[in-house]
Design brief:
This protein is mainly α. It has 8 helices and no strands.
Length: 168
Amino acid sequence: MSKDISSTEALAAKARQRAANAPPGSDDAERSLGLVAGLTSQVGATVASSDPAVSMRYRAGYLGGNLAANLILLRGSIRPDLFMAAIAYGSALATPEGQRALLAAPDPVNAHTYACVLAHKHGAVIDERDEADIFTWLVRLRQVTPTAELTARYERMRARRLQRLGPA
């Protein structure tokens, strides 16, 4: 059984090494560099979506890394499968469709639903507690004030998604 992850510094060091070993400019190098930036940046910080110099691979690593760092900060450690789910979720948000959903409205429920569905398709399993913490990160990322209406919309969309797909 794999050991829980409790150090963003150790993850960042591994990602730096991976980037150093990858061909410069490759997808793996870009994603790894984004992961380092996400793991070491302020929790909830974002990378400019409109900046053409920021590749989708870098953005995917950044968002997944920032989410993982937030979960580690919140919980003290996370399971390796939750780390992989955070990477899949961040990658989903970095796609053109994910970016459109993320930036379309201040309400992050559609972006969250999209990211959960795509992460699910890539094999990520996100339980109810994990999903609530991930959604809280996304709300903070979008700088949205949590309200009873937002929570109710999140719960309705989650129930609908789970009915269609099963657990994310």
